[in-house]
Structures are given as structure tokens and as C-alpha cells.
Please model this.
Amino acid sequence: MTTVPRTQDIAAIRIWLLIVAGLIALMVLVGGATRLTESGLSIVEWKPVEGALPPLTEQAWNEAFAGYKAIPQYRQMNAGMTLAEFKTIFWWEWSHRLLGRVIGMVYLLPFLWFLWRGAVSGPLGRRLWAIFGLGALQGAVGWWMVASGLTERTEVSQVRLATHLVLALLIYAAIVWTLRRLRPREVGEAPARLRWTAWAIVVVTFVQLYLGALVAGLRAGRIYNTWPLIDGTFIPPSAQLLFETPWWRNLFDNMLTVQFEHRMTAYALVLLVAFHAFDVMRARAGREAIRGAHRLLVAVLLQAALGIATLLLVVPIHLALTHQAVAIAVLTLAVLQAERLSPRRATAAVPQAAVPVGQAG
Model:
């Protein structure tokens, strides 16, 4: 038998999840700054408990610095770095890891409390357990990413970096979806094509986020800094796009190919979102759905403009982080739009008005 959460429990759960979502968004931005400042390999050990504290003595700082000096990044990129300079990159990585620990505690402790109260059973409970499992996996993926840059490379694997980012944003999207499901809305069926388009936008957004992480991991935004042409042409010749063997390696390792993929996917996303905004109005899908589609279109256009500016100005850190922040906003709006166009059962815990979607507003 499924227990229906009480209204006060629903309100508390929403506040809790809103805080967790905000912390994850912050962590993604701190992770972006850590990458842009080349700070991600400054801590060469994973100590889940002891690592929560930074070095507290001069000896501890020297030991941490000695560990960094032993990896290829120091020898090939930062030889001669002073302890003071090391501390600067150390604090970025330490803050990123600390924030991950904070998010884990902020999620786990209230979750246990709500479980004890019987407030998160049924579909909601299963969804929250799945989010918890993904969060635990994210810690392991984070160390898997860092480990890729400690022996032979001077940076982490761009594929592992992209996996780490997309998993974080998948957790974020699941929380946004859950938050939206805990709000009342009109009961009604949107045309199937609108639902499919909304979900296609979510999928393409995740693909674009993955490709953006590959661009960042390869530093591919620091070359081919022209637009709309790339290396003097709109579509580079296949000999340049697919010169590595096997061919599929180009999709992840070839800087020209990765940047080209990122550009083309951006164009596809803009066109898809613009079509969806037009189609929602044509279908008279309700004021809320129309507003959601228009907000998403504005955010995607802003994101495209920021991406072009970031490329042309050769990735200044403040603009790159703004580009990343708006990407999170685009994902948020895409998930909200997909949820509001998806079927939902009315429950006592989340009241819904029996108004057909096409007549809402």
C-alpha cells in the first residue's frame, strides 16, 4: 500500500530538493572554474574522510605540493611553480570536492528523515532512491576522471570529464523533474508530437552538454576562433574531420571534429526549440506550455550568442562560466517543458485542476 505524503511533507521535500538542485548547479560552475584554471589535478589522492580538511600546517602543504610535483602536469606545464601558486589551484579543487561532500550530506540526512516519516514511499521514494544511487556513482566517476590525468597525461581524459559533467546534470535534471512533479497543474493530454518534441529537446540538450565538455577537455575552444566559418569553411572536408583511425576516435579526440559537432548540434537545437515554440502556439497547448516554450527559446538563443562570443574571444573565463551557467538554465527549462507536456496522474498529495491542456489559460 502506497502512503500519500501530507501537504506539509510535500512542501518540505520541495524546499529540500530545491536546495540540493541549487548546490549541484553551483558545483557544476565550480567544476568549470576548476577546469578553466587547470586546477583539477592539484590533489592527487582521494581521501573521503581526511580529505575534507585542507592542509593545516606548513609540512602538510609541502607534502601536498610534493604529491603534485610527481605527476606529469607539474613537470610538463608548471615546473618551477611556487608553493603560493600551488595553493591557488589547490583551493579550487578542494572547494569542488568539499562541495560534493556537502551535497551528499544535504541530500542524505533529510532523505533519511523523510523515509522515517514515511513521506517518500511509492514512485516518489523510488525516484529519490535512484537519485541517491546516481549521486554515489558520481563520486566514483569523479575519482575515475581525476585518475586519468595522474600518470601519463597532463590533463584528465576529456571523455571522462564529459561523463562526469553529464552525470552531474542528469542528477540535477532528475531533481528538477521531481520538483515539477510535486507541483499541481492542469490535467489534460497534450498532442503526442509536442511531448515527443519536448523530449527530443532534452536529449539534444544533453548531447550538446556532452560535446561542450569534450570541447573544454580538449581546449578545442582555443582554436578555430572564427564564426560562422570554421577553418575557412562552413563544413570542413572529411579528410580533416576523420583523419584518425579508427574513424570513431575523431568524434572524441579530433579537436576540429569535436568543435564542429558542437557547432552543428547547437544549430540543430536552436531550430528544434524554435519549431517547438511555433508548434505549441499552433496547437493552442495552453498558456503555461506556450510560455515555457518561449522562455526556452530565449534561453537557447542567448546560449548560442554566448557560445559564439566565447569562441571569438578565445574563452575568457568569465564568459565561459556564463556560457556554462546559461547551459544549466537551458537544461532546466527543457526538463520543465517536457514534464508539463507529459501525462501525470492526479493525486491527493498533488492536486490538479481538471482543465484540458488545450484550454488552459
About this structure: Residues 83-117 form the longest helix (35 residues). The two ends are 36 Å apart (CA to CA). The chain has a mean pLDDT of 90. Residues 1-183 form one domain.
